[in-house]
Amino acid sequence: MKRKASRFAYVSFPVSVKPALAIIGFLLCSTLTSQAQGEAATGKITAYAQKAAAEKLYLHLDRPLYLVGETLWFKVYYTDEQHRLADLSKVAYLEILDNDNNTVVQAKVSLKEGIGSGAIQLPTTAASGNYLVRAYTNWMKNFSPEHFFETGVTLINPFLPADAPADMLPVANTVIGFFPEGGALVAGLENKVAFRAVDSQGKGLVFQGKIYNQRRELVTSFTPRQYGLGHFLLKPVSGDSYQAEWTDAAGKTQVSPLPAVAADGYAVQVTGKGDKVQVTVQRAGNAPGGRLHLLVYKGTDSFAGTAPVTDNKALFELDKKQLKAGVNSLVLFTDDLKPVAERLWFNRPARPLLLQAATPKTVYSLREKINLELTAGLPAGLTSASVAVYLTDSLPELPQADIESYLLLTSDLKGKIEDPGYYFREVSDATDLALDDVMLTHGWRRYQWNTLLSDPVFQPAYLPEYYEHLITGKIVDAQSGAPLLNHAVFAASPSSRILPFVGMSDAQGRFLFETKGYTGPRELVVQPNLRNDSTSRITIDNPFSEMYTRSRMPVLALRDSWKQDILKRSINMQTWNSYFPKPRPQTAPDSTTFYGKPDFRYYLDDYTRFPTMEEVMREYIPAVLVRIRQGNFHFKVLELGLHTQVFNDDPLILLDGVPVFDTDRIIRFDPLKMKRVDVLTRQYYIGELAFPGVVSYSTYGGDLSDFEMDPRALILSYEGTLQHREFYKPDYERPDPKAQRIPDFRNLLFWSPSVTLKGNEKQTIPFFASDQEGTYRIVVQGLSQEGIPGSATSVIRVTK
């Protein structure tokens, strides 16, 4: 295609590189006065980008409104910045918070190949109100909580009051902000200025506005396009100042200043034309000329280009195929590596995921079978999806972001986006223009470039959980509080599954346990080696983040008109909890031991029972010698091999997996509570530690059986990851007279977090209506293998 001759350079971007920002180093280093200086600076950028990789979470909740006592079902989608399912972190953290950041629910969720799911019984002590649900990984705690996933849910407690009565609802304050394209309002250059006017709840305002200079001369008028957003063009005069007068729908007029006018700088204009994106840069005043460099990046993918400044202008042209789906960052640098402008640009997916959810008809009778037909709208590949079908009525529902608008849009922006789904439901020139206003008004910097170039060292405080949940803590001297170096710390949960955790402290006294298979509510016993450490103090860290955003949920005021629907839902909830099976954990007893098959295993029921453990050990456990030294009992394990000999030191002694360092306590224990004794007659290594044999006792209950632990041990309640639960679905096609007599008032007809769609094949999912009449919403969320998100909704009715 021919291009009209121009006096300015018109530069395209043919090169793409990984890791992020590497090519900008080559381009910039070639123009710096000191090449060594340029290489050092760009090396810092590259190193930082590699180490500070970002993660994203999206949470699909089964519905937006619950009564206390109901079960909240959810699915976690865990992705990289390109929205592909990731497999780095293996645990997600979920919290439900009130507006004072008090915790209502906390849970840890196992992730496998980027997917996790679970069920949480909502506490009956929670007051009626709107609550914040958030989710994040341990690695995400290294960054601002703005990166955490957040959404709102409504909890209703029929027996406790709501947040506030209707006459106490807060008065909505209004605010307007102005955002010049590229970041600065530059004198003598035409600037595109975006604006955003919202109330205290983040709702966009309808208003009329005018721009005046300091001489009260009208410069231009403006009005919002959608949700209080819009833009206008302004060519400011050097030395002038500007202010906006705007009048809202209630007739209230406010005056707000525009940003100060800069005499020197760059104005950036970004426009999309067909399959190209054009970036026009204008220079004014004493801003450096020469060459400019444009870096385009999203996550760890980037490319860059250089253009000369000719007649105070530089032009760049981007191919949309080079841009990633979603929000891309454009950063303008001068030759001396100084960032001078930044802009966000949204690029729609070249091939969207067109999920469809349909039923053969829209009205069903009570307990009738419903066949939900799903398609992904892609020619090939797999799509991971989740499906919910729930009752809607007069009760209020907080808006829920779908996976498409969240991953592609809001997860990369700062602040609240009103109705983000609007920009995806109907794609048109109007929604594209409105979406660009969002880019201008909600843009923010993932990297603070000036800080990054001067000191880009990234030292994470939180490690990614590559395998399973990490329990971290600190060991210090009990008297001085000084951290203890190279101290072994042991942790275990009493269980028939013998699996202690061992950690070694560093110079700061910090240690960690890499847990495996630690699920559900547990009692955790943490202790040092009490044989040679009696003066230490151990603390265990809170694994949940203590950083919070400023997000606040709107106050819920229960209205009299909702009473009937609340009563109906309350009866439904109590009926369900009374007659239908509770979602119990789907776990089988596990008697696995960390040491595998022992050298000797003794089942004590195979022998005549002795009244003391000393007699049991001496008579039945020949692989372990019992010795008394200075009035205390000690065990010595026989090291069996070519030449049988005795280990000099005490072995690792375990009771239901919990280390015991005082042999006298084992000797005093009731042998009738012991089921089994395992002995390892060899040197055994756990992490950095070596033990002269292992003697492992198991009680019948796997729960220590009232064993008296050393009072110096730290014993605390510590929940592991959620145990798997199955969603109950009745089947009314199978004849079951008992089931026919049980009332079925389910508000949630169907939930599945594990639907896999293959290419464009239709998949049919059957479920049954309940005895509850009403309108039910079907919501499907999905993510393709290529990282393209999509969603679908439809509605059915159930009547007699």
Describe the structure.
- The chain has 800 residues and is mainly beta.
- 11% of the residues lie in helices and 40% in strands.
- It is built from ten helices and 48 strands.
- The strands form 13 sheets. Strands 3-9-8-5-6 form a five-stranded mixed sheet. The chain has a five-stranded mixed sheet with strand order 27-48-47-29-45. The chain has a five-stranded mixed sheet with strand order 36-42-43-40-41, with no helix packed on it.
- The longest helix is centred in the first third of the chain and has 17 residues, at 35-51.
- The chain is globular, with a radius of gyration of 32 Å.
- The model is unreliable at 1-43 and 165-169 (pLDDT under 50).
Quickly count the helices. Answer: 10
Structural class call reads mainly beta
Terminal CA distance reads 65 Å
Number of strands: 48
Estimated share of beta-strand residues:
35-45%
List the helices and strands and how they pair.
Layout: E1 10-12, H1 22-29, H2 35-51, E2 56-61, E3 65-67, E4 71-79, E5 91-97, E6 103-110, E7 115-121, E8 129-137, E9 149-156, E10 174-180, E11 185-186, E12 191-199, E13 207-213, E14 218-222, E15 229-234, E16 242-248, E17 253-257, E18 261-262, E19 265-273, E20 276-284, E21 291-298, E22 301-308, E23 313-319, E24 326-333, E25 339-347, E26 356-358, E27 363-365, E28 369-375, E29 382-392, H3 403-408, H4 422-425, H5 429-442, H6 449-454, E30 470-477, E31 488-492, E32 501-504, E33 510-514, E34 523-528, E35 536-540, H7 563-579, E36 600-603, H8 613-620, E37 624-629, E38 632-639, E39 645-646, E40 652-655, E41 658-659, H9 663-668, E42 674-686, E43 689-699, E44 714-717, H10 737-741, E45 748-758, E46 763-768, E47 774-784, E48 789-799
Helix pairs in contact: 1-2
